[in-house]
């Protein structure tokens, strides 16, 4: 099977691509390699994928530019699409809203158009737990209403789900949307709290802890995320008129992928401190605009449908990330 992976140089895209290659699939990766965070890290991920052999090919292209995307994919064959590319970041969306309009809305439309025109077997795409906004009913269920986003990033992800539902209805394009919950692990993103805290602790700098350290997150290790993505990819939703997870009667379903545990930010910091061998100087700060107090994933639908079971606890995953970080930076 040949799979088109968007955002292949990104955190999740890199890990999904590596898994597909390791099991013998062919991967065509695309990525714009934008400068939202250190491009050196993106190139390093691509170099790792390149070591896995000729079954991986890569094209640098901005998929929000439909002409450039069509030109890049001209003559290329692929059976399925894993669409993980996006402009990430809740806080950055408040500062640079137009970047999200282009990448997350126009970009998503362009990719599902590719899926429709190529009649791919399945299109799996990244949504986000941020679509739940200020929902106070825990755990978050895919059946919950998600029409009160607290950030533009969240609004674009909900819009992506709606566009995909339309294409599943009109064109019967099989799709699965995945609401990821606080993903972490080796080769992660430098703008995420775990990376920022690890860097600061090892550098002897104070860490900024928003929400006075009382926020709770469903921290999900990257290997568990990949397991969920692959399980979905290998099992497209049937076009049978039966109600799917998320409520669609078209071949479109939506799942939460989380660890199904809501853990205090302060506890995560304690595990990082232990892994680093140093105590953190914590500067407690109020909540930031667009942030939510707690996330907690109900994963019953994907457990029931596909047998998904997260396996990595925070006490296991965090030290693996710290070990990778130290190795990557020779610390």
Short description:
This protein is an alpha/beta fold and 331 residues long. 41% of the residues lie in helices and 17% in strands. It has one domain: Rossmann fold, CATH 3.40.50.720.
Chain-wise SSE layout:
Layout: E1 2-6, H1 11-22, E2 26-31, H2 39-50, E3 56-60, H3 66-73, E4 80-83, H4 90-95, H5 97-118, E5 122-128, H6 152-171, E6 175-180, E7 183-184, H7 193-203, E8 207-210, E9 216-217, E10 220-221, H8 222-233, E11 252-257, E12 263-264, H9 265-276, E13 282-285, H10 300-306, H11 314-328
Parallel strand pairs: 1-2, 1-4, 2-3, 4-5, 5-6, 6-11, 7-10, 8-13
Antiparallel strand pairs: 9-12
Strand content: 15-25%
Helix content bin: 40-55%
Mean pLDDT, rounded to whole units? 94
Instruction: Supply the number of structural domains.
Output: 1
Distance between the termini: 40 Å
Helix-strand makeup class? alpha/beta
Q: Class in CATH?
A: Alpha Beta
Count of strand segments: 13
Radius of gyration: 19 Å
- How many strands, which pairing sense, and closed or not: the largest β-sheet? 7 strands, parallel
Reading side by side through the largest sheet, how are the strands ordered?
A: 3-2-1-4-5-6-11
Shape: globular
Task: Let me know the CATH homologous superfamily.
Answer: NAD(P)-binding Rossmann-like Domain
CATH topology name, in short, is Rossmann fold
- Residue runs with pLDDT of under 50 for 5 or more positions: none
């Amino acid at each position: 099977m040949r799979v088109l992976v968007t955002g292949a140089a990104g955190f999740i895209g890199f890990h999904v691509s590596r898994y597909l290659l390791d099991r013998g699939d062919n991967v065509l990766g695309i990525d714009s390699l934008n400068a939202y965070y250190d491009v050196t890290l993106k190139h390093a991920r691509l170099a790792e994928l390149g070591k896995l052999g000729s079954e991986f090919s890569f094209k640098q292209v901005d998929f929000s530019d439909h002409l450039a995307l069509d030109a890049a994919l001209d003559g290329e064959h692929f059976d399925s699409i894993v669409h993980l590319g996006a402009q990430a970041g809740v806080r950055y969306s408040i500062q640079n809203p137009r970047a999200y309009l282009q990448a997350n809305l126009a970009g998503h439309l362009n990719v599902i158009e590719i899926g429709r025109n190529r009649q791919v077997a399945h299109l799996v795409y990244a949504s986000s737990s941020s679509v739940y906004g200020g929902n106070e009913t825990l755990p978050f269920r895919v059946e919950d209403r998600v029409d009160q986003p607290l950030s533009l990033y969240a609004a674009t992800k909900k819009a992506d789900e709606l566009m995909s539902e339309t294409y599943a209805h009109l064109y019967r394009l099989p799709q699965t949307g995945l609401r990821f919950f606080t993903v972490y692990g080796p080769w992660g993103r430098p703008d995420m709290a775990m990376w920022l805290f690890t860097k600061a602790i090892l550098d002897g700098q104070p860490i900024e802890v928003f929400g006075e350290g009382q926020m709770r997150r469903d921290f999900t290790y990257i290997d568990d995320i990949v397991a969920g993505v692959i399980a979905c990819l290998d099992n497209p939703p049937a076009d049978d008129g039966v109600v799917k997870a998320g409520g669609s009667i078209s071949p479109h379903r939506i799942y939460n992928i989380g660890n199904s545990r809501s853990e205090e930010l302060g506890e995560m910091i304690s595990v990082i401190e232990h892994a680093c061998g140093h105590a953190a100087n914590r500067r407690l700060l109020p909540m930031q605009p667009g942030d939510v107090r707690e996330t907690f994933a109900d994963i019953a639908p994907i457990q029931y449908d596909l047998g998904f079971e997260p396996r990595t606890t925070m006490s296991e995953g965090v030290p693996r990330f710290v070990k990778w970080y130290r190795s990557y930076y020779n610390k």
